[in-house]
Write a structure and sequence with these properties.
The chain is about 0% helix and about 70% strand. The chain is mainly β. The protein has one domain: Porin. A hairpin with a 3-residue loop joins strand 4 and strand 5.
Length: about 210
Amino acid sequence: MALPLTAQQNPNSSRLEVGLDVLSLFDKNSLPAYSLFGRYWINPSGEKPAFLRSRLGYQTTNNTTNTTKEFYTYQEFRKQNLLATIGFQKDIYTTPVTSFYYGADIVHQRLNDLQFLTYGDEVIELAGIETINDNTNISTSISGFVGFSRKFKGNIALSFESALYIRQSSSSYQYSAIFLDGSINNIAQNSSKKFIAGANPFYQIVLTITIR
């Protein structure tokens, strides 16, 4: 994804690039805000450069609120977002500073949203009872992409990619209550699966640096 340099003419060139997906920094999508991208050139003597690539991302937030004698005396919100991808990329056309390429990624993502609420005295029949809302979504997709990369000074490259994808998504929801005697009651739960196909014109925008 980053730039396939003129490295194919120089087998002694560095074969590893690492970087960040800058798209997540300003596009409010479902991906982690920060992730590490890497690409390794696997055929330095080949006519057209080919690469193994991977991306790992993780983001977590935890917000708590303690109050007195209100509807809720305690509120806690936890969110976790895990992303892992592995893929293959091959150049179509390469110049000393630009590259057009195609490839495919297998993408796995897990989103979890937990909410803990403790009722206060204003809700007499529920005072002191804690409830838990647990929402989890796990998805696996195959994305076929095309991209363009431009190399700049200092071994830095910027790459733009668009993709078509097929995704299987599994969602689960569970609502539970913890009573004053410590007993737990699963009040509601459900799960679902679905397949989605679509296009993502802004699949990744990656800023990378070649490791010497």
